[in-house]
Structure to design on (263 residues):
C-alpha cells in the first residue's frame, strides 16, 4: 500500500523554518547570549525552545508529517532544558550525555525524559531506531565531529531526520568563553585565559574545544549523500547566502546547521 503522502510534492527541508528565521528572532537570540554565564536557566530555556521549534519545522517540511509522537535522540543534550522544550512540543525525548554532572545541572531531568550516559561517537542504539537525531552545539567539543555525524545517521531510520548544528571556529563565538582571543590562535587564547582566570577554560582548546569549519561540515554532508539543507542557525533567512561563499562563511556564519535525511 502506498503512503498517503506519496503523491504530495516534498517541500525544501527549510521551507517552514525559513518563515520563522526573521531578523527579530536573530536579535532576540543574540540578546539572550549575554545571559549564558550570569543566568544560564534564562539562556538555555530560550535556546531550547527555539531549537525545538526549528526541529519541528524542519521535520514538517522534510516529511510532510506532524512531529508529535516522534522519538528524538538528543546527542549531548546536557541538562533538562531541551528535554522540557521537546516534550512540550509533543515529542518523545531521549538524551545522551557523557558527563553525569551535566545531566543534573539544570531542571529536574525534563520530567519523564530518558537519559543515557554515553559518547556521541559510539551511540548505544540500534541502527535506524529513532525518527530524529539532534546534536546542538556539540560537534566542536569532540575531536572527531564527523564520526559523531555518522553515528547520528546510523541510528536514524530511513526517511527520518538528522539535525547537526555546531559553532564555527572562525566565527565570533568560536572561542566560547575565551571571547574573540581565539583569533590569536587556539593555544595562545587558552593560555591567555588561564593566566587571567587562574584556571583552564571549561571549553579548553585542544581538549574540550576544537576547530570545526563550515567547509568541513559541508564536505561531510556531501559525502553522506543525505544532505538536504545547510544554513546559518541564528541568521535571518535573507542572510543565509553567506554559507555559500568560501572564506566569508568561516567568519560570518557563527553556527552552521546540517540537515540530513537518511534514505
Amino acid at each position: 500500500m502506498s503512503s498517503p503522502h506519496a503523491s504530495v510534492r516534498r517541500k525544501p527541508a527549510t521551507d517552514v523554518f525559513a518563515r520563522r528565521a526573521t531578523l527579530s528572532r536573530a536579535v532576540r537570540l543574540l540578546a539572550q547570549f549575554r545571559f549564558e554565564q550570569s543566568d544560564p536557566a534564562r539562556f538555555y530555556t530560550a535556546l531550547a525552545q527555539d531549537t525545538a521549534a526549528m526541529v519541528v519545522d524542519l521535520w514538517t517540511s522534510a516529511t510532510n508529517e506532524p512531529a508529535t509522537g516522534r522519538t528524538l535522540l538528543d546527542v549531548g543534550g546536557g541538562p533538562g532544558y531541551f528535554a522540557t522544550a521537546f516534550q512540550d512540543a509533543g515529542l518523545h525525548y531521549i538524551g545522551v550525555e557523557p558527563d553525569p554532572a551535566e545531566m543534573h545541572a539544570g531542571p529536574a531531568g525534563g520530567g519523564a525524559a530518558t537519559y543515557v550516559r554515553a559518547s556521541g561517537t559510539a551511540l548505544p542504539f540500534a541502527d535506524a531506531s529513532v525518527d530524529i537525531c539532534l546534536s546542538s552545539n556539540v560537534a566542536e567539543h569532540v575531536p572527531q565531529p564527523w564520526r559523531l555525524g555518522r553515528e547520528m545517521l546510523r541510528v536514524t531510520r530511513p526517511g527520518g531526520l538528522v539535525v547537526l548544528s555546531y559553532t564555527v571556529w572562525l566565527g565570533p563565538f568560536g572561542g566560547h568563553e575565551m571571547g574573540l582571543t581565539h583569533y590569536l590562535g587556539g593555544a595562545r587564547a587558552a593560555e591567555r585565559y588561564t593566566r587571567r582566570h587562574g584556571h583552564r577554560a571549561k571549553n579548553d582548546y585542544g581538549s574540550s574545544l576544537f576547530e570545526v569549519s563550515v567547509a568541513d561540515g559541508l564536505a561531510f554532508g556531501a559525502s553522506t549523500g543525505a544532505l538536504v539543507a545547510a544554513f546559518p542557525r541564528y541568521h535571518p533567512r535573507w542572510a543565509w547566502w553567506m554559507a555559500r561563499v568560501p572564506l566569508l562563511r568561516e567568519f560570518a556564519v557563527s553556527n552552521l546547521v546540517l540537515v540530513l535525511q537518511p534514505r
Summary: Confidence is low (pLDDT under 50) at residues 1-9. The CA atoms of residues 36 and 43 lie 5 Å apart. The radius of gyration is 18 Å. The chain has one domain: 15-169+210-260.
